[in-house]
Amino acid sequence: RPRSHTVTTTSSSFTANLSASSSTLAYDREFLRTLPGLLMVAEIILGLLVWTLIAGTEYFLYPAFGWVMFVAVFYWVLTVFFLIIYMTMTYTRIPQVPWTTVGLCFNGSAFVLYLIAAIVDASSVTKELDSHNYNSWAASSFFAFVVTSCYAGNTYFSFISWRSRTLQ
After folding, report:
1. Signal sequence span per UniProt (predicted)?
2. 70-106 confidence digits (pLDDT tens)
3. Is there a contact between 65 and 124 (Cβ–Cβ < 8 Å)?
């Protein structure tokens, strides 16, 4: 008994859709030329300095520096994440998220917690603790205040953006 072999081929538009969707991934070079973009880059670079200066010491012996490390690393990672979102214009693909409110909450919380961490960092730096770590802790304290001012600036710009969106 002979068997019949039927081969059915179908064409899928999946590859066409995949190539079309991947080519629409935008890259916004102009964001880095804006003041909020420059502040975000400064937050990343200076925030990296804050936590690497502390991480190179025996900070785990002093709970205050553990708090500073938590804030510095947490907001450093989130700032890198938000920079990627803004650079790739991902926020335009997810219009359900109120990005101006998210930006305001993120920058506002970063400002407040970084201010607390910078004050804790500065008040914990004494020569009596360990003279070997003194310079690193003092430098991290300085940079923590600089990063705090960057987040304050971005909080201001986020507030202006949020306010203009809510008035419309």
Report:
1. none
2. 999 999 999 999 999 999 988 888 889 999 999 999 9
3. yes
Please compute Rg for the chain using Cα positions.
24
Task: Write the pLDDT tens digit of every residue in 139-168.
Answer: 999 999 999 999 999 999 999 999 998 765
Domain boundaries, the chain: 27-97, 98-128+136-161
Q: Are 100 and 123 in contact (CB under 8 A)?
A: no
For residue 128, give both structure tokens: 């009596």
The CA-to-CA distance between both ends of the chain, in Å, stands at: 76
Q: How far is CA 96 from CA 4, 100, 161, 168, in A?
A: 53, 12, 17, 17
Contact 114, 147 (CB under 8 A): yes
pTM for the full predicted model: 0.80
Angstrom distance (rounded) from CA 71 to CA 68: 5
89 Rama class: left (phi>0) / alpha (psi -120 to 50) / beta: left
Mean pLDDT of 121-125: 91
Instruction: Name the packing angle between helices 99-124 and 134-167 (round to 10°).
Output: 160
